[in-house]
Description:
The structure holds 2 protein chains of 2 kinds.
Chain A: H1 8-16, H2 20-42, H3 45-62, H4 73-94, H5 119-137, H6 141-153, H7 157-164, H8 168-187
Helix pairs in contact in A: 1-2, 2-3, 2-4, 3-4, 5-8, 6-8, 7-8
Chain B: H1 11-16, H2 21-31, H3 35-51, H4 63-72, H5 89-93, H6 98-131, E1 138-145, E2 153-159, E3 164-170, E4 179-186, E5 192-198, E6 206-211, E7 221-228, E8 239-243
Bound molecules: zinc ion.
Amino acid sequence: MNYTSAKDQVLIEMIQRGDAAALAELYDRYARLVYNLALKTVGDSATAEEITQDVFFRIWEKAGQYRAERARVSTWLSSIARNRAIDILRRRNRRGDEGANPIDWTDATPEAFLADDDPEREALHALRRERVRAALKRLPETQREVLALAYFEGLSHSEMAERLNLPLGTVKTRVRLAMQKLRVLLVEEDAP
Amino acid sequence: MTASPHITELLPAYALGCLDQPEAERARAHLGECDACRAELEVYEEVVAELMYASRSVAPPPVALKQRILDSLNPSRSVSGPSLRVKTWRDLMSGWSRPQFAFGITALVLIFGLLLANFRLWQRVQALEQQHASVEHIHTVMLMGSEIAPEAHAVLVMPENGEQGALVVDDLPPLDEVHAYQLWLIDENGKRESGGVFTVDATGHATVTVAGPKPLETYKAFGVTVEPLGGSPGPTGPKVLGSA
Ligand SMILES: [Zn+2]
């Protein structure tokens, strides 16, 4: 079996049958993204590591629940990762250690990409990253702000309203407009 | 109040996970019985998944993590036994009975031959299908080092009709502080336009986003030269990388 050439979806089918090498390949494709998403959300490498481990362990255990007609593998994987990271963040915040500085996508370490073992994969990720970042840049600052609070900190509408001292309706509108615009820029403009 | 039975206005926030409890429950209940809203939700979930790509990689996961995960898997669930790291010759040979062996060798040679021949091809196909599923067509160009940088190599990827691409360079010698590398986009008349100026890190690596005045795939060739820091209007220094 040629793992590197298998589609994500085929890897999941193999994982369902207990094929650890398929999980290893999926790890090579996504661990870096998952780890960095977790790192950015929770802020420390030990927890990010724990989340990454948990995500791939869950995929191993729950591969049977994946429905290809519902979502791409990357979509499924990113939602597991984000849910896990936000769970941890919420548990921490409840203990009172309030999150440090607000996080968003505008960190400006220019062109400081990290080398991947596979240059082609790295190039594709870089391309995709720039595409998403370009779309985010086209949102008004106020919309990007609520998006980041929801995405990285897992805040709800009312928690954001409180944090930003804004009417609830304003927050809801900003979230909705941001997502609708991203949908146009990232999903619909792809249509050939 | 309008009486739309759907929950379209809740879906973007539902996908993002930021609805407050009562609304989240209303959405969940409705999604359980409405295919239209579920389909709509999937689009927003895709948007949320794309956001994962927006963060820059600041650190790789620790090298030992992969093995730790693989070691922690429960092997009892496995049907055929985990075929973990079937990579060595010995691994491939083990389990083959002797009469099959000679045939096996021939088959293996054939398979390896095919694998080698198809290696680049399926890597591209895989890359195309997997890692950039949201962009329909991707072109990949390999750049090889010239005689003054024989170790250097690079890969340039560009979406069809896209004016933006990405270049990943490896093993290119780091330059002094008054020079930089410059990518050239060469059209069918041999005219060269700048695709960007970059430097490499101490290991000779760089990942560069590339932008050109025209869709990148319309250029016939690509090259990299050494130029004064800031770049030149046209190539002046020695060439270090070029496409075939
Ligand atoms: Zn509905």
